[in-house]
Request: fold
Amino acid sequence: MKKTSIIALAIIAIAIGAIVSMYGDASTYEGFEVSANNPGKEFHVVGVLNREKEKYYDPQKDANYFSFYLIDEKGKESKVVYHNPEPADFDRSEKVVIVGSMEGDHFEASKILLKCPSKYTDNQVQT
Amino acid sequence: MSSVTFVGEHLFWGNLGHAAVVVSFISSILATISYFFAEKNPLDQSWAKLAKATFHLHSLAVLTIIGALFKIIYSHYFEYHYAWQHSSRDLPVHFMISCFWEGQEGSFLLWIFWQMVIGQILLRSAKDWLNPVMAVVMLSQVALTSMLLGVKIFSYKLGSSPFELLRNVMANAPIFKSADYLSKVKDGNGLNPLLQNYWMVIHPPTLFFGFATTVVPFAYAIAAFWRKDFTKWLKPALPWALISAMVLGAGIIMGGFWAYESLSFGGYWAWDPVENASLVPWLILIAGVHVLIIHKSTGNSYIVGVILIITTFLMVLYATFLTRSGILGNSSVHSFTDLGMSGQLLVFLLVFVLMSIAMFIWRWKDMPRSAKDEEIYTREFWMFIGSLVLVISSFQVTLTTSIPVFNKLFGANMAPPADVIGHYNKWQMPMAIIIGILTGVAHMLKYKKNSNEGLKKMGIQAAIALVISIGLFFVFDLKNFFFIGLLFAGVFSILANTILLLPFLRGKIKLAGASVAHIGFGVLLIGVLVSSANKQVISINNTGEAINPEFNNKENVENIYLERGKPNNMGDYIITYVKDSQFWVNTYYQVNYKKLDADGNVDYEFNLYPNGQINPKFGLVANPDTKHYWGHDVFTYVSSVPSQKGEAKFINEKTSQVKPGDTIYTNNGYAILQGINTNSDGENVDVNNFKVLLGAELKVYTLDKVYDAMPLYGVENNSATSYDAFVEEAKLKFRFTGVNPEDKSITIVSSEKDNSGDFIIMKAIEFPMINFVWAGTIIMIVGFFLSIIKRVGDL
Reply:
């Protein structure tokens, strides 16, 4: 067997390993229901802020506690806790992507991505 | 619409710009065709002449587009959507340059500009390869200029023009009913505050110059297929590939430096799709350069080398598609606008992919091959292995970055890994170890000579490097034993290449570009390892106050609450939020750091000024401030500020009867009455209004400073007026409220300003050895530069 063939085989093996690892590590976009059935497992949840219910952030009491209510794309609502300050521009977001897992009665978010399409295409002339 | 004649518009510049776009598009098509036929009919000089003329016309048109667009931004012609959307009146000139490439059209324009400049350089340097190479470069220019066209062909909109008028983009807005609508458009939307940074003025041009240069080696490779000449193109193409590697490398790290200096994610690299998209072509290019050098020295591995050089350019196009088609959507923190050009971008990518595949099929049998098996104890063997590792590394990065593409293709529902950094690191760290070690190993061996005589020397070096690494492991106090591998790779690479470099230090340094670049890589490796492994969030909230039972604060409690003027313990520091000040649109928060030594005494102190822009459109946009020491950085940013500052409130009011020499005690310090002044002339007080105006001369002592304060007391007939004295920094207010003739004392009411509504939430991170990251990169770039000089000298 030529060395070239051995190298080629090794590369194919590693490449397959990379694909498997991508599949294994990839999270999925799910709603709160799936998340609640798999507590502790991390998911991406896409949703909108429930503006009727109060969000809570009182930095004088705890600068690292922020909670709000999110309605996922299937319409299910959950409380979300984020152990960081309230992200800037949070109120203006049209869509929120949270990454994290269900912990008891609430969703522990480790990351929050805000989607504010209006940032760049705010086509309203201010006079 | 047409019935209204609008006043005050500057239509000339837009028309000029748009005409220039059309001219640049058509002239690039003509130039492509002319260069194509000039290559086909080498005897007919008229094609070459026509090609040159159309290319010059094209260059002129490109400069005109840039001039017109800059004029529009510079003169605040807000009737143009681009100026309105990306700039505003208050921007300084250097940021107007950044406005230029904030929008997609502008960044395409930047790319077009560089590709045009490259074409002009080729015109003067490519000699007999000019025609086929320029044909390919101009074809890419056709694709790029089409992105700026903004014309409708049937129902499909081709490209997006930067000269679109505001009233056409938002045709339905009622404001455009009036002819003098411009008088109502007072200001533009402004530049995204994150881009209001010096690095954003120079980082995009560098990166795009890097992207643009990848077309040259690609064009040479295609020209080689075309001419069936597989040797002569390597010499002129290699310096271009090296320039590309140097500039793209510099551009990528500048992006990292910008992120570190001005973004608040706390680091220089986050494996974000946008970062990955520029890293992947660079990795493949580095692999390609190595394989081409192998081929030049040994005659082997031609096919792999060409595949890599071609893939580099195709990956640049793929990166462009990923970041501009809007397909990344939810997977990136970057915001992308979809200008509806994804179809066009896909066509651009596919045309070049298919062209490359066709070339391979066409010339498959003619390409040089080596029938011999590779020998193990040769330099080329290990260089080749190293290149393959780079390819695997870029493959892995591409794969995970492309998750949104797989979703689209196969209708899957995958999201990027929840722990993105962990996912990439577990693959990329071992690869970095292998590559670091190989940069030391390969140079010990010789081309085409299967001999193991260098092995003993290598063994000794490796042993020394291992000892140093274990030493460093304890010096840096690293926890994970896996890191010894990375340290070893870095140290071994530096050691082996420095030994190689020594003989060249006298005079022949330019022959040692490779060694220098590899030393830089070793230094970079150590910097990346230590700064990320020992990165420490020092603003851990340790007040221990848990008021709400829900505040279980299990992990990322990484932000500290700082009330103005109140010192706080943070790690080895005492930090105080001193004050805020406004400069242009930014608020700077002065934070004083006092470093304590082991005995708890103040060792040294410094101030940091992280700033925030309370932007009406973007909310709080925070920029960090960093104190640089040679061995570590203290990185600080404001993560939240109160939305509205409350009115000043004074608390702890206390009335004291004092005589000169007496002391008034407060929580913030104490004051001693020096004497009573009868000739006071307070700044805001008219002395003539009073029969008597008394001033209480107070010396106010806080922990570290002394201030003077003089509250006034004026008497006129039956009424008396008090004037407060306020010591801002000590947050103390004194009020002179009365005189007691019996015991010759006066009454002073002291109070303290309540600052509980005036605070910042701050995060601070210590990065050790981060200077190694920058230093390593600079050394690497110097290495590339030396190699370029050598290769250009060989031409």
Summary: Helices of chain A lie at 3-25, 32-37, 118-121.
